[in-house]
Write a structure and sequence with these properties.
The chain is α+β, with helices and mostly antiparallel strands and 208 residues long. The protein has helices spanning 5-8, 20-23, 33-36, 66-69, 98-102, 123-130, 133-141, 153-156, 166-205; strands at 16-19, 24-28, 43-46, 51-52, 55-56, 62-64, 82-85, 93-95, 106-107, 111-116, 160-163. The N and C termini lie far apart (59 Å). The chain folds into two domains: 5-164, Adenine-n6-DNA-methyltransferase TaqI, Chain A, domain 2 (Alpha-Beta Complex); 165-208. Keywords: DNA-binding, Restriction system. Residues 12-183 form the Type I restriction modification DNA specificity domain. This is Type I restriction modification DNA specificity domain-containing protein. InterPro entries: Restrct_endonuc_typeI_TRD, Restrct_endonuc_typeI_TRD_sf, Type-I_RS_S_subunit.
């Protein structure tokens, strides 16, 4: 296996390989963002707390008042943008869809935006590809060292991405979604079983 294939995996010879930096635009959050944050109304700000299981939950997100958000229009997120956690040990990201996309949030200081700008790449395929273990390992090796790990956009720009035909990208992403959903269902069931086990143990030890 070549060094390239150690990241992309074996793939048909007809597939092109491009880099993330050539296929996407990456942008960090505005530096003055934290000073404008309110707590109840306005434009949501995505932090790592809003990202989990490949989804974005804005219910408890902090917000920027609408009047202050006007000067940040170029930082507003769009449908199918990817938001990646920038700092810490969690190598997670989420694809912006549904109601979260309608609200056009802004990526907070601990996150950054990845926007597909190439017609040869589907956002949902990229999101699936970024979750592959070999790609996660590649990204982890390029984190800056220190007390807090830090993802560097300049390093991520060199990530190689294989480009099958768009219908094949769509098929791969859909299979990935279905399997992730099945994994979450099993994890939730296992969590319920663990809680039940602990409760039964406590009851039996109490003589009930």
């Amino acid at each position: 296996m070549t060094p390239l294939e150690s990241v992309t995996g074996p793939h048909p010879s007809g597939w092109e390989i491009a880099t993330l930096g050539n296929l996407c635009e990456m942008k960090s959050s505005p530096k003055s963002l934290e000073a404008d944050i309110a707590f109840h109304e306005g434009v949501p700000v995505i932090s790592p707390a809003q990202i989990g299981n490949g989804q974005i939950d804005l219910l408890l997100a902090q917000r920027i008042p609408l009047d202050k958000a006007k000067r940040l229009e170029r930082h507003r997120l769009r449908l199918n943008d990817i938001v990646m956690i920038r700092t810490g040990d969690r190598l997670e990201h989420a694809l912006l869809t549904g109601d979260a996309a309608v609200q056009a949030p802004i990526a907070g200081g601990s996150c950054f935006r990845i926007r597909v700008i190439s017609d040869d790449l589907l956002p949902e395929y990229l999101s699936w590809y970024l979750n592959r273990p070999a790609v996660q390992e590649w990204m982890g090796r390029r984190d800056s060292s220190g007390v807090v790990r830090h993802r560097r956009m300049a390093e991520l720009a060199s990530l190689p991405i294989p480009l099958p035909a768009l219908p094949e990208q769509s098929r791969m992403a859909e299979i990935g979604r279905l399997l992730e959903r099945k994994i979450r269902v099993h994890e939730e069931a296992a969590d319920v079983a663990r809680r039940l086990r602990d409760e039964v143990a406590r009851s039996m030890l109490a003589g009930r």
